[in-house]
Design goal:
alanine racemase activity, alpha/beta, elongated, PLP-binding_barrel, 11 helices, D-amino_acid_metab_enzyme, Ala_racemase_N, isomerase, 9-stranded mixed β-sheet
């Protein structure tokens, strides 16, 4: 099946006169993934979907997903992306996915005075950072929405004790004209990463959920004035998407990469999703075998592989077509003209394409200025975020 798919894609690229490396999104696979997510979101009806911008960094792609999933909630990890989203989505609700240095937030407001009332939830992980943001709010006479990062077991920072949490809530309660609690964010990617021999995913998930619930109770019991039905309790991510849609203490669910399903997101819980993202790289040279510099004796040995030099290379991606296509172990990697071995019997010519599957979408998207949406033998060009 994949053999036929890549042969057709190779032919369609050449028919369109494309002769440079391309990042391709397969429309059929993308639409199937969207339908799967639509079904799951309906089942977990209390969960509002939030699109992770870094993993889907193209306005065209985000606009399609926003419409299909009926959301303008976005998780943003990079300062320049804030303005891009606000300019393109009139009802954008932004949640920062990592704590920004206070100077970054100050720079944003200094350069974007028209966005002082935009719906931005700044992620705060410590009391010290909260006090820095308080000074920004005072200097610009604005009210900042504050979402507190809590550690639910990943141990990548964030609040780790109820005492620390209460101290931060006290500051927010003390300065209501400048700080507004908008919710909590607890990222739980560890749930599916811990080896099962140490802890089963179901157990790790339930433990992370209990931690999350405990922090919610602190707000309810100790700071009832800060509690309201509009609080954003964000969690999840592609690895734990299926856990949350089954049962969750959260009401806001982030995901992104799973829609394109790069290889790092191959897991039992995401087996229903299809790979939708490929790199196509033109073949520049075809040699009968790889000749290693200063090692002429090896040239006389029998060779089972042909050598290709391709346009580009060394991406965070795995070669998937032709079959048994792989970098040469001794020749070394190259991002300019990578040497790739293929079977001696492989029928591949100069100007054909080899295909790779990215391991991550967030690492690959900024390396290409365009995405090519592949649909019914044709290609639609989408722009990506290059910053």
């Amino acid at each position: 099946m994949l053999d036929h798919y890549f042969k057709t894609l190779n032919s369609d690229l050449k028919t369109q006169g494309i002769a440079t490396p391309q990042l391709i999104v397969d429309d059929a696979a993308l639409q199937q993934n969207i339908q799967y997510i639509q079904t799951k979101i309906v089942q977990g009806e209390q969960l509002k979907p939030r699109l992770v911008v870094k993993s889907l960094a193209s306005i065209d792609l985000l606009q399609l997903l926003s419409e299909k999933l009926n959301t303008q909630r976005f998780m943003v990890f990079h300062l320049p992306h804030i303005q891009l989203i606000l300019e393109n989505f009139s009802a954008a609700d932004l949640l920062l996915g990592k704590p920004m240095p206070a100077q970054a937030a100050r720079t944003f407001y200094a350069q974007n005075s028209t966005w002082t009332k935009a719906n931005i939830q700044w992620l705060i992980d410590t009391k010290e950072r909260l006090l820095q943001y308080l000074e920004i709010a005072k200097d610009y006479a604005i009210s900042l929405h504050v979402n507190i990062e809590i550690d639910v077991g990943l141990h990548r920072g964030g609040v780790q004790s109820e005492t620390q949490f209460a101290e931060m809530l006290s500051v927010i309660q003390q300065y209501p004209q400048y700080l507004k609690l908008s919710g909590l964010m607890g990222y739980d990617a560890h749930v599916t990463k811990i080896p099962s021999i140490i802890k089963k995913p179901d157990q790790a998930y339930q433990e992370s959920q209990q931690i999350y619930l405990n922090y919610q109770k602190v707000i309810q019991m100790q700071f009832p004035a800060l509690w309201n039905c509009d609080l954003c309790f964000n969690g999840g991510g592609s690895p734990t998407f299926t856990f949350h849609v089954s049962e969750s203490v959260c009401n806001d669910l982030s995901f992104g990469s799973m829609l394109l399903k790069p290889s790092d997101f191959e897991s039992e819980s995401l087996k229903s999703l299809q790979p939708a993202l490929w790199i196509a790289a033109p073949v520049l040279k075809v040699l009968p075998f790889a000749q290693l510099p200063a090692m002429p004796l090896l040239n006389k040995l029998p060779h089972k592989s042909k050598a290709l030099f391709i346009y580009g290379g060394y991406w965070l991606a795995d070669y998937v077509y032709p079959n048994q296509c792989r970098p040469h172990l001794l020749y070394g990697r190259s991002s300019n003209q990578e040497l790739v071995n293929v079977s001696r019997n492989c029928d591949i010519q100069v100007d054909d394409f080899v295909f790779l599957r990215p391991t991550q979408s967030e690492a690959i998207l900024p390396q290409f200025s365009e995405l090519k949406l592949y649909k019914q033998h044709a290609f639609e060009t989408w722009q990506t975020f290059r910053e």
